[in-house]
Amino acid sequence: MKFFFVFNGKSLKNISLILIAAFFTAWFLYIENLTQIPVFSTKDGPKAIYRGEKDLALTFNIGWGDEKAEPILDTLKKENVKAATFFLAGSWAERHPDIVNRIIKDGYEIGILGYEYKDYRDLEDVKIGQDISKAQEAFRKLNVKDIKLLRAPTGHFDERTLKIAKRYGYTVVHWSVDSKDWNNPGVPAIIKNVDKADKGDIVLLHASDAAKQTAKALPLILKNIHQNRFKLVTVSEMIANGEASSKEIR
């Protein structure tokens, strides 16, 4: 009997360890999955858009640099692309008014990428508001009107950001397809990443100098889009043309 109790105790201990390990593994996977949710909405509150129902939206972030934006604009013009959305940092726009004017002249949509490149999750509410307000003022001085879209500078945001953006009159826009061009993985990899896009997707690209391979990848990206017969629209057009998707913030 003594041997039986010692054996049972070890078994229970082993089972307990297995259950604990399983619990923490499941919890880790759950948390990891949450971090992969691409966009959020507050319950019965403001929403962040990450995709639509139809068509395709190319979006370009520009936070710094003066070498990559114009080649990308040249390619869009050469390929007769009539619709794209550029999210511009207010500080960058102030330094590059000529490029901002060209984006508008070429018929593309402008959204705000904040003013400075700061993670809104790390800022107090008042600082988020100040960053948005500074960007708003920068575009006002450049005579850029009727901006309704905002993208968090680092792509990271929380419920507070959604509420503050709404207070300033902006809809937060995320993305459903990440080209990962910011990581400079090589032209073939960027093209492959964008090839995953389907109707309703919002594609993230960059026209900042840090994205050194985007301009080379863009012609083939556009070729594939045309072959797939996707219609390119601005984010605002996508929102207006049908229901846009969001997910509840946790």
Could you walk me through the main structural features you see in this protein, from its secondary elements to its overall organization?
The protein has 250 residues and is α/β, with parallel strands linked by helices. The protein is built from nine helices and eight strands. It has a five-stranded parallel β-sheet with strand order 4-3-2-8-7. A three-stranded parallel β-sheet has the order 1-6-5. Strand 2, helix 2 and strand 3 form a beta-alpha-beta unit. It starts with a helix and ends in a 10-residue tail after the last helix.
Assembly state of the chains shown: single chain
The amount of helix comes to: 40-55%
In terms of per-residue confidence, which ranges show pLDDT below 50 for 5 or more consecutive residues? 1-8, 17-40
- Shape from CA axes? globular
Instruction: Provide the gyration radius in Å.
Output: 22 Å
Number of helices: 9
Number of distinct beta strands? 8
* Distance from first to last alpha carbon: 52 Å
The helix/strand series, from N terminus to C terminus, equals HEEHEHHEHEHEEHEHH
Query: How confident is the prediction overall: mean pLDDT?
Result: 85
Strand content: 5-15%
Q: Order of strands across the widest beta sheet?
A: 4-3-2-8-7
Biggest sheet, open or closed, and with what strands and sense? 5 strands, parallel
Structural class: alpha/beta
